[in-house]
Design brief:
By secondary structure, the protein is mostly helical. The protein is built from 14 helices and 6 strands.
């Protein structure tokens, strides 16, 4: 069943905020894409990532220190996805398509698949945010975590507020070796027809998974003076850090107490207009913290991101006041947790 949005009189809200946001960039003579601060950020993250990678491979350091380095390495891998690839795949990094494509390719190198992310995230999640059976992007552990009250309750869910965080640590490991393949061959993702993939995309999916295995499994085992068990310990620790980082950025933005998980009616209609729906289903967090904003790639400004995904996240703090004030004029609720701790606490309470 195709999900549609109905209440078009509230489309005036989206027209209003688009006008306000466009005026902000025109009046300040700014590009909506990356500025010099953003490119410094990109350079710093990538330099740090490759420095740690080559240190792990070639530096004459103890195995204990190598194991410890897998913690920042996992974190930096997540930062590449959150800060660079996420913007690039949305076309938000540069006005030049080839630049976005180039930096999107980093997603493939670090184990995910940019093509499938574009479908599951950009197309499906951003259109049908938090709608059961339409937005599969929120199903971080299908059958193991229950977020919607309409889902069938099972005894194991009474413990999900405890075991969910252990599952989050497996997020990136599952993504690299399972999720992309499952999604690629899935006939439908929500109501999206997922059967029109080219052979080129299948070959690229397989090729880059092989590249990942070569760079992050085969090469370390060949050049590093460690045992297989020591490698497995470091590899798993890296993925636990990476998985937790990713999950604990995305979950507090959509799976907290103050957001909605609306259901369409029997005709597949959502009663709100799309932009108003985004305000109902997204929640910002810790927007006053420059540190949180920097590390999360601006995804703590989730409302701004969902309304303007093709604008680079470096601009979100400036857009927030515009969107908040406009939402108030239209009597729309602007959801926000004031701190990151509050957001994680709210996610925990939702699970419980």
């Amino acid at each position: 069943m195709k999900v549609r949005f109905k209440n078009q009189q509230k489309a005036e809200f989206y027209v209003a905020i688009r006008s306000e946001v466009d005026n902000y960039f025109k009046e300040n003579n700014l590009s909506k894409k990356a500025n010099s601060k953003m490119w410094v950020k990109v350079t710093l993250i990538l330099t740090s990532f490759f420095s740690v990678y080559f240190t792990l491979l070639f530096a004459d350091i103890s195995n204990v220190f190598k194991l410890a380095l897998t913690i920042p390495f996992g974190f930096l891998t997540a930062l590449i996805g959150l800060n660079i690839c996420h913007d690039a795949i949305h076309g938000a990094l540069s006005e030049k398509r080839w630049v976005n494509k180039l930096f999107s390719g980093l997603f493939n190198i670090v184990g995910a698949n940019a093509y499938m992310w574009n479908i599951t995230h950009n197309i499906v999640h951003h259109t049908y945010t938090n709608i059961k059976n339409a937005d599969e992007d929120i199903d971080i552990a299908p059958g193991l975590i229950r977020l919607h009250e309409s889902d069938e309750w099972k005894p194991r869910y009474q413990y999900q507020h405890i075991y969910a965080f252990f599952l989050y640590g497996l997020t990136s490991l599952s993504w690299v070796f399972r999720k992309d393949f499952v999604k690629f061959f899935q006939k439908k993702i929500g109501s999206y027809n997922n059967t029109n993939h080219s052979k080129k995309e299948l070959y690229k999916l397989i090729f880059f998974k092989i590249v990942y295995v070569a760079l992050f499994i085969a090469l370390p085992l060949i050049v590093m003076d460690i045992t297989v068990l020591q490698f497995i310990a470091g590899f798993l620790l890296m993925h636990v850090i990476q998985g937790l980082t990713l999950a604990l950025v995305f979950q507090p933005a959509h799976a907290v107490e103050n957001v909605d998980f609306p259901l369409p009616d029997e005709k597949g209609i959502i009663p709100e207009e799309w932009a108003a729906h985004q305000l109902q289903t997204c929640s910002n967090f810790a927007t006053k913290s420059k540190l949180v904003t920097w590390f999360t790639g601006g995804l703590n400004f989730q409302i701004e991101h969902h309304l303007f995904p093709t604008i680079c996240h470096i601009h979100y703090p400036k857009l927030a006041s515009i969107i908040r004030e406009t939402a108030q004029k239209f009597n729309l609720t602007y959801h926000e947790n004031m701190s990151y701790y509050n957001a994680i606490q709210s996610h925990y309470h939702l699970l419980k």
